[in-house]
Amino acid sequence: MRGNLLSDYSATGVACANIAFIKYWGNRDPLLRIPSNGSISMNLQGLTTQTQVSFSPELPADQLSLNGKSAAGAALQRVSKFLEHVRQLSGMQWVAQVESENNFPTGAGIASSASAFAALSLAASRAAGLDLSEAQLSRLARRGSGSACRSVPGGFVEWQAGESDQDSYAYSIAPASHWNLADCVAIVSQEHKETGSFHGHALADTSPLQPARLADAEQRLAQCRQAILQRDFGSLAQLIELDSNLMHAVMITQTPPLLYWQPATVEVMHAVQSWRKQGLAAAYTIDAGPNVHIICPAEESAKVKQNLLQIPGVQKVLRAEVGGPAYLIR
Ligand code: DP6
Question: What average pLDDT is seen over the chain?
């Protein structure tokens, strides 16, 4: 039996950001976030969101604080809508206070919605009295942000697209210890992006290239799974660059078009390809922004970082190895 102490209705979750090797772009069902294709990512160790959720009968409405600042508007609405879903699942009637902190800088080219909604799913479900399985948590996180479902399990993670709320969730295909890779994030701009992923996804189908990208997605997913399981960096490198280029080809040809690349983005892309020709194991992948993620074996990351910092447009480089699953803290 639960007591009536406020702390009984409070929980704190932590989750890593992730970087996709095979990208999620476009939804079959935008409300439920059933994606147009499956995706595969790697969790980013040490780049985390920590979120505390406290349900209380004494609050007038849901409240959100982000990195110590009280948030209103669209951010609060998105969290409140998500909490409404948790209330429906759990029978919890109270509103909640949500305090969320990222340990990585905002605008640093790391999508915070993935780690944020993964941490929120864990904290909110537990605070509301639910004890969900990993798949259930991943499905719940997906409702807040698609890529968040991949930050619930650990290591190398696949989100099976599925066809309904029931079968669209992510699971680990290999633990973090399986392959010591690193992501060196080359920051070329810290400006806030004008069009976020949510609006971008909704326009993916306006690109004449989206059907071609989707037609081969299953094949790329199978190749990526295999490259990870066999620790085949050469195959992974070609595949992640191809998949990132395919997604950006769709973005650039949407109506209205989304061109996230800056001149320094393209400079880094060229540099990475020439380093690889010279024998350095490294490959680029880019999300919905201008910053470039360079994936490499962890032992090469010092060299990759050093090389990146010599490119004039690169302001700084963040580095992360493979991260584990989302977890609760006391
Ligand atoms: C380009 O998960 O941020 O990073 O579901 O609307 O929150 P919402 O979108 P989001 O989209 C991520 C898009 C991407 C590719 C990826 O991470 O797979």
Answer: 95
